[in-house]
Amino acid sequence: MNLAKVLIIYTGGTIGMIKNVKTGALEAFDFENLKKYVPELSRFDITIEAIAFEPVDSANISPKLWITLVSTIEQNYQKFDGFVILHGTDTMAYSASALSFLLENIQKPVIFTGSQLPIGTLRTDGKENLITAIEIAGAQENNKPLVPEVAICFQNRLFRGNRTRKYNAEYFDAFESPNYSELAEIGISIKYNKKTINYSPHTKPVRFHKKINENIILLKIFPGMSTKFLKAILNTEGLKGIVLETYGAGNAPTEEWFADFLKNAKDKKISILNVSQCNAGSVNLGLYETSRIFLDLNIISGKDITTEAAVAKMMFLFAQGFSNEQVEYYLSQNIAGEISI
Length: 341
Ligand code: ASP
Description:
Elements: E1 4-12, E2 17-19, E3 26-28, H1 31-37, E4 46-56, H2 63-76, E5 82-86, H3 92-102, E6 103-104, E7 110-113, H4 126-138, E8 140-141, E9 144-145, E10 150-154, E11 157-160, E12 165-166, E13 175-176, E14 184-186, E15 190-192, E16 207-208, E17 216-220, H5 227-234, E18 241-246, H6 256-267, E19 271-276, H7 292-296, E20 300-301, H8 307-318, H9 324-332
Parallel strand pairs: 1-4, 1-5, 5-7, 7-10, 17-18, 18-19, 19-20
Antiparallel strand pairs: 2-3, 6-16, 8-9, 10-11, 11-14, 12-13, 14-15
Helix pairs in contact: 2-3, 3-8, 5-6, 8-9
The structure holds aspartic acid.
The site of aspartic acid has 10 residues, from loops.
């Protein structure tokens, strides 16, 4: 029997942290300690290897890490059946979203996990998360991976990476995927929800993209926002796109200053993607008078995309050498399972 082979890539986060007795703060520690705290790793009927990066709190993660992850997966793609990425929870949804675009046509599991409590603590959730993530990354049926996509495994659920957001800083179930059903439920057994997993036969081989364009911003509208700051944003050199978090179903003030802001952005060829501040539901332009302006100016609806996926998608698309029209076309389309069709 051929054992499945899983590569663990350790980037840092709480899962691998330890309390500094002097300051009381959590600090990253060496990956070898992780193995010490999870002796179960040697009991798997899966072959496990690990690569440890210099551990970082995920608040310090930048797109550079995404590219390093892509290169590491590329170098090991033929050798392993699946990948587990240990990552801090704070920006995990951004990284998982980014990898869903950068690993185009991925046909093997790339499972992110982490924990709310360090793996060395008594009630840690890290051990269970790690063990389950490895099991999912190595799970196969008829020699084919059961989850051939980028996903986040946390507590008792497996989510599509680019549908997920961290919504809780306290409870063990830190993540949710409000607009897309879970890929698997984790109980006594792991129940794969095969209807939600992307099994579409990829006619093209996997592509490992290694470019990101960071010339975008995320702007959340709020009552009382000042036009002087909006003007300053539009005057920022090199700005290519704005992920605009609007109210409810994509609504914004109907006042002239806001319309001027949108028109000026258009004139400057700055693309705007309208995403909702709400956790669940979708942008639905034209439903209210307060979203009419977006339709009139042909501004793209992000539909039910998460903010995290919107940011990663924009950074990815602007790095592809596309024209503005092409970027805007792809922003309006589902390209990696990030938007409901
Ligand atoms: N600050 C930590 C991080 O994101 C939190 C965690 O891992 O849960 O790296």
